[in-house]
Amino acid sequence: MSKNKTPIIILNYKTYTESTGKNAVKLSQYVQEASDETGINMAIAPQAVDLYPIIESVDIPVYAQHMDAITPGGHTGSALPEALYETGIEGSLINHSEKRLTLADIDVVVEKTRQLDLTSVLCTNNVKTSAACASFNPDFIAIEPPELIGTGIPVSQASPEVVENTVEEIHKINKNISVLCGAGISTGEDMKAALDLGAQGVLLASGIIKAENQKEALIDLVSLI
């Protein structure tokens, strides 16, 4: 399966207890099983400290949650792209609403992922920002209004025009960018609604991570497509 095949589900582990350490490895195996059983491309974005054990235990694409716009040197506490690349990741989230970057730094990081042959998943918060970021030519742009993140209210239903307009504006600039829908996605109905609006996948977190049965929640997510 191509690492960027769509529709795609990208699960951001954030820093939840349920997706940290041993729990992160177990969750990654559930995602692998759900992907194998459904034939849907699924990728994961664990914390940096969990990358090595997870990459060794699964075959699905593993992304970093963040990269800094830095070069090797004196940047204590930063996320060096080359160091993350050495773990074996296949891509990275960029500019998540919980880890914002300036436009200049977004440009640097997207270009770095391109140099390292990594998938870039650039997060944006509205239509105008999405259109501006399309000029950087990332592989994916994930539209996530920050006010809906973690609420359980899916953007595909609360603000469907945001998804439709984002897809339209991005594809005016670059038709090769795949648009993802984020914020509040947790059910098969949410996933189907996102795809019907023109998205080619979803970026989600708590709806799966906090589920009583994480694997079944993932399978339910693709049950209507």
UniProtKB/TrEMBL annotation:
<dbReference type="GO" id="GO:0005829">
    <property type="term" value="C:cytosol"/>
</dbReference>
<feature type="binding site">
    <location>
        <position position="184"/>
    </location>
    <ligand>
        <name>substrate</name>
    </ligand>
</feature>
<feature type="binding site">
    <location>
        <begin position="12"/>
        <end position="14"/>
    </location>
    <ligand>
        <name>substrate</name>
    </ligand>
</feature>
<dbReference type="InterPro" id="IPR013785">
    <property type="entry name" value="Aldolase_TIM"/>
</dbReference>
<feature type="binding site">
    <location>
        <position position="149"/>
    </location>
    <ligand>
        <name>substrate</name>
    </ligand>
</feature>
<dbReference type="InterPro" id="IPR000652">
    <property type="entry name" value="Triosephosphate_isomerase"/>
</dbReference>
<dbReference type="Pfam" id="PF00121">
    <property type="entry name" value="TIM"/>
</dbReference>
<comment type="similarity">
    <text>Belongs to the triosephosphate isomerase family.</text>
</comment>
<feature type="active site" description="Electrophile">
    <location>
        <position position="96"/>
    </location>
</feature>
<comment type="subunit">
    <text>Homotetramer; dimer of dimers.</text>
</comment>
<feature type="active site" description="Proton acceptor">
    <location>
        <position position="144"/>
    </location>
</feature>
<keyword id="KW-0963">Cytoplasm</keyword>
<dbReference type="InterPro" id="IPR022891">
    <property type="entry name" value="Triosephosphate_isomerase_arc"/>
</dbReference>
<dbReference type="InterPro" id="IPR035990">
    <property type="entry name" value="TIM_sf"/>
</dbReference>
<dbReference type="GO" id="GO:0006094">
    <property type="term" value="P:gluconeogenesis"/>
</dbReference>
<feature type="binding site">
    <location>
        <begin position="205"/>
        <end position="206"/>
    </location>
    <ligand>
        <name>substrate</name>
    </ligand>
</feature>
<dbReference type="GO" id="GO:0046166">
    <property type="term" value="P:glyceraldehyde-3-phosphate biosynthetic process"/>
</dbReference>
<keyword id="KW-0312">Gluconeogenesis</keyword>
<protein>
    <recommendedName>
        <fullName>Triosephosphate isomerase</fullName>
        <ecNumber>5.3.1.1</ecNumber>
    </recommendedName>
</protein>
<dbReference type="GO" id="GO:0019563">
    <property type="term" value="P:glycerol catabolic process"/>
</dbReference>
<dbReference type="GO" id="GO:0004807">
    <property type="term" value="F:triose-phosphate isomerase activity"/>
</dbReference>
<keyword id="KW-0413">Isomerase</keyword>
<comment type="pathway">
    <text>Carbohydrate biosynthesis; gluconeogenesis.</text>
</comment>
<comment type="pathway">
    <text>Carbohydrate degradation; glycolysis; D-glyceraldehyde 3-phosphate from glycerone phosphate: step 1/1.</text>
</comment>
<comment type="function">
    <text>Involved in the gluconeogenesis. Catalyzes stereospecifically the conversion of dihydroxyacetone phosphate (DHAP) to D-glyceraldehyde-3-phosphate (G3P).</text>
</comment>
<keyword id="KW-0324">Glycolysis</keyword>
<dbReference type="GO" id="GO:0006096">
    <property type="term" value="P:glycolytic process"/>
</dbReference>
